[in-house]
Specification:
Blueprint (H helix, E strand, L loop, with lengths): L8 E4 L3 H10 L6 E5 L3 H4 L2 H11 L4 E4 L8 H13 L4 E6 L1 H15 L5 H5 L9 E5 L11 E5 L5 E5 L7 E4 L9 H19 L6 H22 L6 H21 L3 H13 L3 H6 L2 H11 L1 H11 L3 H11 L9 H7 L7 H4 L7 H10 L1
Parallel strand pairs: 1-8, 2-3, 2-4, 4-5, 5-8
Antiparallel strand pairs: 6-7
The structure holds NADP nicotinamide-adenine-dinucleotide phosphate and fe (iii) ion.
Length: 364
């Protein structure tokens, strides 16, 4: 079986916004809500490019720049209501995964401004506003996924996936990622490796998702090695990292992620670990689990990606900073029930038991 559905118009390459956004704006009157973080949209040059295109088309822009890392649902509610009150007919997320994911949830609130938190998560909504995404990191692949990860009012990260959340179009110009600090280049690179591996070693993987995942890893090996060695990255390196992130996104569109993402959310919520790092710390364990139980699948990935298992492990470890905390036993025990029969955790090839998760968390 090789089922997939991916309706996003993707433009990834130099001048993607200037060359392709005007045509796609023709079916909108505006105003348009632009969703950004604190400064990356400006710093990367993406915001100026989008504003220039909107102004040429005489479309008014309303800006919401209140999205922070690990976006809050309350910010999405606020921005959604702002878009609703301004009569916006399109939401454009500009930034990394945080503003791009937020744009999808904001699109729901823009169409249903009265939704409560419970109704939002229970999906008591049908047609969110259309969304464009302009990516400025090379990590989440949110440009091509149905996923919006937002933090609820109790501080827990929820990964909501729904085909109605697919962006209508995505524009990724690797030039925007030239301003990424080294730490974000490494953590977003780690996120891409996690997407590709969690997808490849997933019960739902198929021919298409495996091809995308393996190619994603192959593309990022050399530029990520350069980044780890502190060498400056060229536009070509940045383009390869960006394309790898899109391929990782396409792979998880088919399969979803697996246990490292789901368990990783906890490290971000409790200890502020950047998303990619919080997932990648578990990849060496995932690799051992697959080597032990599914050796042929392990070989299939490393052969297709053109890297040995040991070298890939070294590349992953090179992205990880030292973690400056230890999890207490009470903390681990209090959290464990969250992963019992969890669908994402169980989609890992061979599944994952609470005992195995307990051991991994203790070892961190
Ligand atoms: P991010 O949280 O969007 O951004 C991280 C940091 O990088 C922020 O400080 C941001 O600044 C800065 N930044 C972004 N682009 C920059 C640029 N071009 N130049 C300089 N600085 C830049 O990071 P992310 O890793 O892309 O996204 C992580 C989020 O996505 C997490 O919440 C994660 O759970 C979610 N996620 C979603 C999916 C999915 O499928 N949708 C998959 C994996 C993860 P500003 O604050 O100024 O923007
Ligand atoms: Fe991720």
């Amino acid at each position: 079986m090789m089922n997939f559905y991916m309706p996003v118009q993707v433009f990834a390459g130099k001048n993607a916004v200037k060359d392709h956004m005007p045509d796609l704006l023709k079916s909108f009157r505006g105003p348009v809500l632009l969703v950004t973080g604190a400064s990356s949209a400006k710093k990367s040059g993406a915001l100026d490019d989008v504003l220039a295109v909107l102004s040429e088309q005489n479309i008014k822009a309303v800006i919401y720049d209140g999205i922070r890392e690990n976006p809050l649902l309350s910010s999405c509610m606020e921005a959604g209501r702002m878009a609703h009150d301004a009569g916006c007919d399109l939401i454009i997320g500009i930034g990394g995964g945080s503003p791009m994911d937020a744009a999808k949830s904001i699109a729901v609130y823009a169409a249903y401004p009265g939704l409560t938190e419970e109704e939002f998560y229970a999906k008591k909504w049908t047609a969110p506003l259309p969304v464009f995404e302009v990516g400025t990191t090379s990590g989440t692949g949110s440009e091509v996924t149905t996923v919006s990860v937002v933090t609820d009012s109790t501080g827990r990260k929820h990964s909501m996936s729904d085909s109605r959340l697919y962006p209508k179009a995505s524009f990724g110009d690797p030039r925007y990622t030239m301003t990424l600090p080294l730490s974000v280049t490494l953590s977003t690179g780690a996120d891409v490796i996690a997407h590709c591996m969690e997808s490849f070693f997933n019960k739902k993987a198929n021919e298409f998702s495996r091809a995308a995942a393996a190619r994603g890893i192959r593309l990022l090996i050399e530029p990520l090695k350069k980044a780890e060695n502190g060498e400056p990255l060229t536009l070509e390196d940045r383009s390869a990292l960006y394309e790898a992130s899109i391929l990782g996104g396409l792979a998880i569109c088919v399969t979803g992620t697996a246990f490292p993402h789901n368990v990783g959310y906890f490290l971000t919520e409790r200890h502020g670990v950047p998303h990619g790092i919080a997932c990648a710390v578990f990849l060496p364990r995932l690799m051992e689990h697959i080597r032990r139980n599914f050796p042929e699948t392990a070989d299939a990935l490393y052969d297709a990606a053109g890297i040995s298992e040991e070298d890939l492990k070294t590349l992953i470890l090179g992205t990880l900073p030292a973690l400056d905390f230890r999890l207490t036993e009470e903390e681990i025990e209090a959290e464990l029930p969250r992963w019992e029969n969890n669908r994402t955790v169980m989609s890992t090839l061979g599944g994952y038991t609470l005992d195995e998760i307990r051991v991994m968390l203790k070892e961190l």
